[in-house]
Amino acid sequence: MFDLFIEQFPIVFKALNIGFLQTLKLFLVTLLGALPLGLIISFGSMSKFKPLSWLVNGIIWIVRGSPLMIQLLIIYYFPGMVFGHNIWGTGEAGRFLAASVAFIFNYACYFSEIYRGGIQGVPKGQTEAGQVLGLTKSQIFFKVTLLQMVKRIVPPMSNEIITLVKDTSLARIIALQEIIWAGQAFLKGSQGIAGAIWPLFFTGIYYLLFSGILTILFNKLEKKLSYFN
Amino acid sequence: MSALTVQHLHKSFGKHEVLKDISFTLEKGEVLAIIGSSGGGKTTLLRCLNFLETADRGQILVNDECIFDADNPAEKKQREADIRAARLHFGLVFQQFNLFPQYNVLKNVTLAPTLLGRGKPDEIEAHARELIERVGLTEKLDFYPCMLSGGQQQRVAIARALALSPDILCFDEPTSALDPELTGEVLHVIKGLKSGDSTMVVVTHEMEFARSVADKVIFMAKGVIEEMGTPEEVFGHPKSPILQGFLNKGNQF
């Protein structure tokens, strides 16, 4: 049995690496899109113009209140049912585009709530102290409140980002060829290996290593910001 | 010439009128103490002077120059830049200190003068060091606010306000958030600032302090100046029954 494992390992390892690359790509694209979009959504949710804040909060409620898996399915299949053709394009590229849109939108809504907490968590006295010292609005934002906001955001944000690492596996539902898909292929049969479940278990190591690295990075960042409170 | 003239200031929050026709003048170098029960409008008055609130009616003059006129429609829409310029006539020391936690003592004091371009960096720093020495914290220059006691934080806040050399320095209950044993050091610093050229407005509950430092005392109740005069007049011979009641409360125990 061990001989079989040694024989299968290089094939599986290569396939999983390719799958993990897709996982990593989805992770990074989601972050790149959702981090700024979340900030915009948070401004919308805090808007003094009530209809806008109601609308945005309603959207946040729907997105956070329903499973990401359903959102993925709707975003991928629904346009096709309405327009009669797949607007996302064909093949892996099309699936990746649809998955990216679903993930960015979903995560932006979660991030927006984290930003809102961070912004509202900085005491009003900080802004007032800046105002009394004659600073402009942008000086107050960049020199006084921003870093305090970042400090408040880092712990919940790191939590959410580590969840994202594992949530990327949900893209399997629209057959995105990320690492779970790659591992499962050997269960069904691929490259002469069939009925092997260990590649699927083995994907767990990728997730563990990756979230481990992120945890270390976030801890470093938190420590760097721990000199004040 | 008076350093500060406040004329017929009114301020309401919704239907609640917090300031009702407040008028007084202050000469250069004078210290004004404002006393009174909570909710009497003391803090709102200070916040109006510092443009953290906008008065609904009335004028504010500094050195006989009108810097705020709510009754002049042309000035009602003051631009942000104008407000910032007017604001710099005043400094404010907050009850809760409000130091910037991410900066050390020195940077807290130099930040605003640096951002406002008030001189070369080394000049600004030298001036800041001087002010920090004046409040007795030279050995804490590179400490962060969280490493300081409340009294020390408030002394840094005073140095920070002084760094912009305001015409009038305001204190909003500067010792109310402090443990009793720490109030002394802050009051001592404020007392030390009293000199020919710094005009101060101090909202305080420290009656002994008001009595010994102030040149003029205002007693506010329910949004009006109930009584105004020298410490001797206000504390020694209070005329208003509300003031008499207020002063007696302290002696009840």
Can you offer a commentary on this structure?
The complex is a heterodimer of chains A (229) and B (253). Chain A is mainly α. Chain A contains eight helices and no strands. The longest helix of chain A is centred in the N-terminal third of the chain and has 44 residues, at 2-45. Chain A is flat, with a radius of gyration of 22 Å. The mean pLDDT of chain A is 93. Chain B is globular and about 50 Å long. Chain B has a six-stranded mixed sheet, sandwiched between helices. In chain B, strands 2-1-4-5 form a four-stranded antiparallel sheet. Chain B is 37% helix and 26% strand. In chain B, β9 and β10 (224-229) form a beta hairpin. In chain B, α6 (150-162) runs parallel beside α7. With 253 residues, chain B is of the alpha/beta class.
Report strand % of chain A: under 5%
Element order of chain A: H for helix, E for strand: HHHHHHHH
Biggest interface, chains and residue tallies: A-B, 21 and 28 residues
What is the succession of H and E elements of chain B? EEEHEEHHEHHHEHEHEEHH
Mean pLDDT of chain B: 89
Alpha-beta content class of chain B: alpha/beta
Could you tell me the mean pLDDT of chain A? 93
Low-confidence stretches of chain B: none
- Structural class by SSE content of chain A: mainly alpha
Question: Helix fraction of chain A?
Answer: over 70%
